[in-house]
Amino acid sequence: MSTDDVKGAGPEGLASALMEKGALTSDWLPAYQAVPRHLFIPEMIWPGRAGMNRQDDRVIRSEEPDVWWSAVYRDAPITTQWDDGSYAGPGKGKIPSSSNSMPTMVFSMLDALSVEPGQRVLEIGTGTGWNAALLCHRLGSENVFTVEVDGDSAREARKRLNAAGFDPVSIIGDGAEGYAEGAPYDRVIVTASIGRVPRRWIEQTKPGGIIVSPWGPTYGGEGVVRLTVAEDGSASGPFVSSSAFMRLRDQRVKRTHVREYLGGRKWPADGTRSVTPISPDALGDWPVMFAIGVQVPEAFPWMESYGDGSYTLWLRDTAVTSWATADYEKDREEFEVYQSGPRKLWDEVETAYLWWEKQGRPGFERFGLTVDGDGERVWLDSPDNPVPIRGSL
């Protein structure tokens, strides 16, 4: 049993753990105490694990109350919906589509929001309603607007919010559109990841206002960015932490099966063979995936594992024109690569990885994002130092 399991036995234990980590600050402690997490967790859940995108099997409160309670007061995310509500268990569905976020992430993002009394906040992604309730306690329900695309989730969250004594403006709709009727907002907080910042969010935020959102490229790797909106309608700011959120439905990317890339032929089909000294194992950590993904747009990896610990790293582009594979075997100094199509995806990824190494292996805290009339640019250390793009959009 981990330290978090012991400390997460109840609200006070979880609060202590969050304060030790520096996630829960004194200004958010009263909201935490007044808005207990268990009031916003449904009967049926799939407990997650801290720092990992994995879920345990389904837990039903009436059947396993102690397991349910322990999951609620552990510093870990809780999946509350699979496959946009079409799967209810037992076991797990294919794609998690709604959750109650890891408490460390919840309070770290609320801290980054830097709210002040009287400010109006737009939340994108109501989920179970806990985040909206915390904001309502801090700012007053009249200053909180929350948008949820899933009607069932929105209605259940509304019930929980009302039962807890809160009455924010709750909207069922596409979060990418924001909520113009309540604009302008002083703050916008997003509880789903994006790969591009919707213009509506910036347009609905006051100059000087702040947008806090998970942002990540198609490839993988994701961080929380804190953007400040300028008078000219641009927005810019640093990444403040790593994150791992479910994608905004409006920005989900369809991942076509490898057989579509091979055109019915067996691997390696028409792939060109080469070798590389770069181990596929060096490419799997979140910060390096982020750095690669920013440089290699509209491409994504997939690992095909084998029983002996070896694996094939597949790379594919979203346009279904190009693919590459790199085979990993332990203790090898060179690794076999095949690639096909107009984009040489392994070459792009390898060049991006070497750039990241040359910059000193930067973490998220050295990256930032600017959104303006010219589009979006991720930068390193300064807005005038954009990260290079290796692939073709």
Automatic annotation (TrEMBL):
Source organism superkingdom: Bacteria
Gene Ontology molecular functions: protein-L-isoaspartate (D-aspartate) O-methyltransferase activity
EC number: 2.1.1.77
GO biological process: methylation
Keywords recorded for this protein, A-Z: Cytoplasm, Methyltransferase, S-adenosyl-L-methionine, Transferase
Localization: Cytoplasm
InterPro entries, per database record: PCMT (IPR000682), SAM-dependent_MTases_sf (IPR029063)
UniProt keyword annotation of Cytoplasm present: yes
SUPFAM superfamilies (alphabetical): S-adenosyl-L-methionine-dependent methyltransferases
Pfam families assigned: PCMT
Family, similarity comment: Belongs to the methyltransferase superfamily. L-isoaspartyl/D-aspartyl protein methyltransferase family.
PANTHER family associated with the record: PROTEIN-L-ISOASPARTATE O-METHYLTRANSFERASE, PROTEIN-L-ISOASPARTATE(D-ASPARTATE) O-METHYLTRANSFERASE
Name of this protein: Protein-L-isoaspartate O-methyltransferase
Species in which this protein is naturally found: Streptomyces capoamus
Gene (UniProt): pcm
